Amino acid sequence: MGISQKTAGSVFVIGGLTLTVAALAYPAMLGVENTATTGDRVIANTRYGPLTEADRDFVVKVRAAGLWEYPLGEMVMERGTTPAMKEAGEHLIVGHAGLDEMSRKIAPELGITLPNQASPQQQQFVATIDSKAGKEFDSTAVNIMRVTHGQIYSTIAKIRASTQNSMVRQLANLANSTVLDHMTILENTGMVNTDQVNFQQTAPPKLPQEEMTPPAPQPGTPVTVLKPRPDLNVKTPEPTGKPTTSQ
């Protein structure tokens, strides 16, 4: 994936595997300019309601998640050793294609710039999984993804409960259903190390900000599109409700 195998962030223990999983983050440079310093501060007033720093970061997190989990889904479909693994790969692809479509739709409406690459940490997740084979590939992929999905799931709940922006709320609705579907399908593989996953979700190690930050896209670069895959015939959650403009 173009990054060192020795990059910072490698202390996650599942059997003999070491890898760090930490909360995603995003800097002001890739969102609305002149952002506030706290998540609940309003950084823009839009016709869909006020946009906070936390709202902006959430949209970017959803986009960044798809940029590594979609290609990982393709890898799992190809190299997973069980039908349950291959099914998990299909759900990752279809689910993140749907979330990506909505993220790309609402970002320009809210003045948010989206990344075209995952963060170094996320790219390292893929590289670590890619280096495994057989059952170790399965276990490594499942547990890394289960940790990251568990972490973003709590973030989704906070955004859904607090946002006053109807577009962000709609994305949170879809993300909530999609991430729950992914956690369930990962657990159905029977390979989740629950104790280790719960520990990593609640006590993630601290990493340098640059490891968790997707690189800024070059000016004028077309936005990468995660291709929809209706051919996979996977039933995924549908968007609920429509964004309303602020009165």
Largest sheet: 2 strands, antiparallel
| Residue fraction in strands | under 5%
What class, by secondary structure content? Answer: mainly alpha
Spans of 5+ residues with little confidence (pLDDT < 50)? 1-37
Strand order of the largest sheet: 1-2
Shape from CA axes? globular
Radius of gyration: 17 Å
Helical run tally: 7
Q: What percent of the residues sit in helical stretches (DSSP H or I)?
A: 40-55%
* Helix and strand run: EEHHHHHHH
In round numbers, the mean pLDDT is 84
Count of DSSP strands: 2
Distance between the termini: 46 Å
Explain what you see.
- The protein has 247 residues and is mainly alpha-helical.
- The protein is built from seven helices and two strands.
- It has helices at residues 53-79, 83-110, 120-130, 134-162, 166-187, 194-202, 209-212, and strands spanning 42-46, 49-52.
- A two-stranded antiparallel sheet has the order 1-2.
- The longest helix is centred in the middle third of the chain and has 29 residues, at 134-162.
